[in-house]
Each structure stands twice: as C-alpha cells, then as structure tokens.
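Here is the promised in-class demo. Please do not try to memorize the tokens; focus on the logic of going from shape to residues.
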C-alpha cells in the first residue's frame, strides 16, 4: 500500500489544477478570492517542493502509480533528485513571478491567474511523469497556458511575437507526436523505464527507424530549449511578454534541457547497446553554436529584454554543450549552472520591467545615436563641474540589483555562475593519456568569451541606465515588486555560500542519471499486493 508521504508526489499537479479550476468558477467577481487562491497555491507548491526534495534525497526512487496499476499498463509519476530539483526551481520562480504580478500586471487582462496555475501544473507534470505519452500531454498543458501568458496584456508587438511563438510550438508539438508514434511502433511501449530496458533488444533493421523517431523527439525538445537555429523565436517573444510572464516562461527553455537529459540518458546511455551515445556530439556542437549566437545577440542588442533573452540562449547553449560531453562530473556542474541561471534570469526579467519605467520612449534608439554620433553639445570651459551626483535610494537599489544580475549572468567570481562554469570545465581539463580534446578548448573559449560579451553589454547598459541619463524619471516601485527580485538574488547568493552541499546534491543527481538501474527498478517493480481481508472483519 502507498504511504501518505507518497501521495505528496501527485500534489504538485493536483494543487494548481484545482486552484485554476476554482479561479475559473469564481471568475472576476471576487478578485480578492482569486488572489488568495493563487497565493495559497504558489506558497503551497514551494512547501511541497521542499518536502519532495527531502524525500528524493536518497537511493530509493519514489513512484506513484495512479490506480495502483503496474507501470507497464498505467500512469506513473516518478520522483528522483532531478525531478525534485526542477520542482523546487519552478515553485520558487513561480512564487516570485506571482507576487510581482500582484502589483499591477495581474489586472492587465482576463484569466491571468488560472493561466498561471495551469502553467505551473503543466511544468510540474512534465518533471514528474514517467512515460512519453504523458510527457506529451503535460507539454501541451504547459504550452497552452504559455500561449495565454505570452499574449497577456495585448498590444501589437506582444500579439505579433505571441503568434510566432504559437506557430513554432505547434510545429514542435507535431514533431513530438510523430517521434513518440515512431518510438512506440518500434519499442512497443512508451514507459521510459520499460523502453530503456528494451533498447538492447531492438532489431538491427529497426534501430535506424527508432533513432529517427528519437531524433524527431529531440528536435521538439531542442526547439523548446532554444538551440540555434531552432531558438530564433525566443528573444522577440520574451522581450514582448509582460515581466511576470517572461520570468515564468524563462524556465520553459529548461524544460527542453530536462527532457533531453532525462530521455537521452535513459534511451541512449552507456548501457543501451548499439545506440549508446546517439546524438551526443550534435548536442555539444549545437550548444556551442547557440552560445556563439547568443553572444553576438548580447553584443548587438540595445534592448534590455532582448539582452535577457540572448542571455537565456547562452545558458541553454552552455547546458547542451556540457550535457553532450557525456561525462558525469560535467553534467553535475551543468546542473549547478542550471539552478543558478534559472534564478538569475528570472530575477533579471522582473528587474527590467522596473528599470525601464524611468526611461523615456525611444531611449534605446537615442543611446545608439549618442554612441555613433555624440550629443552635439560642447561643454562650457568657464563653468566649474559639479563633483559627484545625487543618486536617489530607489535608483541605488535598482543599480545594485542590476550589478548582481550582470555578475551572475557573466559568470564572474565569486558568485554561483563562476563556480558552475568552473565545475563544468574542471573535469574536462584533467590530463589524460590522450590529452585534452580540442572540443574542450572550444567550449572553454566559448564560456569565457560569452561571459566577457555579457559583461561588456551589461556595463554598457548599466552606464546608459544609471549614469549617462540622470534626467530620466525615478521609477516608482512597490514592495510587491522589489521583494521577489531580492529573494531570487539572495537564493543565488545562498547557492554560492552553500556551493559544497549543493554540488554534492548535483553530483548524486548526475550519478543516478548515468547509472539509472535504481530508476528502472523502482518504476518497473510490481505494485505492492493488497493485503487480504481479515476473516469476519468489515
């Protein structure tokens, strides 16, 4: 029988689903009740995620069988260290974005609150499901909600970018469905653990078709992960979206990373026969190209939201390149990088919304004009210059937050971004009989140059925002907006301070991913037998 703690596994799916349904029934007649429901749900998800992370931090993989059916016939939810990590990151980012939206954005259009809850439901379902079909189902729930959030607040630019986003993801969903169908036709199952067990026994004449189906599935995942050239849609979509929507949507790229990591290591890990390592080189090459594209985009853009989108692409490229190496220690460093980048980029999207309130319309165009042609004004030599500049407290706080975000995104010491990049590169640079591979040097150069480009672009933007344009309006902010940003940045600082224990958790997670026997045994184990009824009992 299932203990009560095991029922917590399905709670991250059930809780936002029930909250979203209740919000639809309440509608806008009692907005206060809707806000309280949303707050209770998002706070509850954080508590659940912490409990599940404690539950998952052990050798036993927790499996929840709906209806107590065996995994081969029923729906299973699987909790391990990786899924628990993603649940915690999603819940923390979701709570920050939700609280930020309460200042004003949740009133900008209808159905924001139920869409937000269904977005969380889809994300949590993706991270917990144990079979490919339900992965597709939760993908569609997640995407359907993201369409509404991307369009929330209307506006021509938002609608145009949102429609592009919808079309691209509909194509990705079609590829996903075709890939799943091909895999089912060859493998005879969609349960990921059962499919991994059958990989060795796939006939030689069927293996090419199975790999083609997996490639289609991978393209769908990589579209979501924004790998170049499949991620052309990301900067424009996230730049046009509202701040809380962009913050929660930023983790969708990590959904693609998660799906690649989970499915690739289960189906094409070291113990899967002739297909072992299938596509790994392409992951690394695609990741490097994505870093290169994101680096150029960071340097080229004068728009802060597009800058954040380009930084998101760099983070996706870094993760893909690291995962593609197929090394356990490198993957552990990549997971540490994933945690820090999710929190840093989410806080940056929220911060941009506040910072840009104090800028005049067309400020980005004026900045380009000043850089190219100068202001055309000459200083008066007989007027003494004033020493120093009065910086209001609000601008100082925003400037400090901007500086921390810039350091995190650039990966400079001593913050978590630098530690994560060091954890990725250190195992690759260990001397061996064959020497250090050329791809390692390319990856190291890409990480260094992308960090340098991000720093240059951030310094340029910071000078324009906080120094060169002192006549701009001082933005008015509320505690509901600045507190979530501060909490996310404090969590990034906590990652730095607790790098040792966190890295230990990531190493254990990577070890389990590359040696999935515990995962397979836990999922495929027969459900516990129902004890016989006591004679004469009721």
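The designed amino acids, position by position:
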């Amino acid at each position: 029988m299932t203990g009560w703690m095991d029922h917590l596994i399905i709670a991250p799916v059930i809780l936002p689903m029930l909250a979203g349904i209740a919000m639809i029934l309440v509608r806008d007649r009692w907005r206060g009740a809707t806000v309280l429901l949303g707050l209770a749900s998002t706070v509850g998800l954080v508590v659940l995620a912490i409990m599940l992370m404690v539950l998952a931090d052990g050798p036993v993989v927790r499996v929840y069988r709906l209806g107590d059916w065996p995994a081969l016939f029923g729906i299973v939810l699987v909790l391990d260290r990786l899924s628990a990590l993603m649940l915690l990151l999603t819940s923390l980012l979701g709570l920050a974005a939700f609280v930020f939206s309460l200042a004003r954005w949740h009133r900008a259009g209808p159905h924001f609150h139920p869409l937000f809850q269904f977005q969380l439901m889809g994300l949590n379902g993706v991270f917990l499901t144990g079979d490919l079909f339900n992965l597709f189902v939760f993908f569609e729930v997640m995407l359907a909600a993201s369409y509404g959030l991307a369009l929330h607040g209307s506006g021509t630019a938002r609608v145009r970018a949102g429609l592009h986003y919808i079309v691209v993801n509909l194509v990705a969903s079609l590829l996903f469905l075709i890939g799943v169908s091909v895999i089912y036709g060859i493998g005879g199952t969609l349960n990921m653990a059962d499919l991994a067990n059958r990989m060795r026994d796939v006939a030689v004449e069927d293996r090419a078709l199975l790999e083609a189906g997996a490639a289609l599935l991978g393209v769908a995942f990589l579209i979501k992960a924004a790998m170049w050239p499949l991620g052309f849609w990301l900067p424009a979509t996230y730049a046009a979206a509202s701040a809380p929507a962009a913050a929660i949507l930023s983790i969708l790229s990590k959904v693609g990373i998660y799906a690649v990591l989970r499915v690739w290591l289960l189906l094409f890990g070291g113990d899967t026969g002739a297909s072992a390592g299938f596509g790994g080189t392409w992951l690394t090459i695609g990741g490097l190209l994505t870093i290169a594209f994101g680096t150029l985009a960071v340097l080229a853009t004068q728009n802060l939201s597009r800058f954040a989108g380009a930084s998101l692409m760099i983070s996706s490229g870094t993760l893909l390149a690291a995962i593609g190496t197929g090394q356990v220690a490198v993957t552990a460093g990549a997971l540490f990088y994933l945690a820090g980048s999710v929190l840093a980029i989410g806080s940056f999207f929220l911060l941009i919304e506040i910072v840009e309130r104090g800028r005049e319309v067309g400020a980005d165009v004026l900045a380009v004009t000043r850089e190219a042609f100068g202001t055309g004004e000459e200083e008066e030599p007989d007027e003494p210059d004033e020493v120093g500049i009065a910086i209001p407290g609000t601008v100082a706080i925003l400037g400090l937050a901007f500086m921390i975000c810039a350091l995190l995104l650039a990966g400079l010491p001593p913050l978590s971004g630098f530690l994560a990049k060091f954890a990725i590169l250190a195992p690759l640079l260990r001397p061996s009989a064959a020497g250090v591979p050329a791809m390692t040097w390319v990856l190291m150069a890409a990480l260094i140059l992308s960090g340098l480009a991000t720093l240059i672009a951030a310094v340029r933007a910071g000078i324009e925002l906080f120094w060169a344009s002192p006549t701009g309006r001082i933005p008015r902010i509320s505690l509901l907006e600045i507190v979530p940003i501060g909490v996310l940045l404090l969590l990034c600082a906590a990652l730095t301070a607790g790098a040792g224990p966190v890295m230990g958790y990531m190493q254990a997670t990577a070890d389990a991913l590359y040696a999935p026997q515990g995962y397979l045994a836990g999922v495929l184990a027969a459900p516990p037998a129902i004890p016989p009824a006591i004679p004469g009992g009721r």
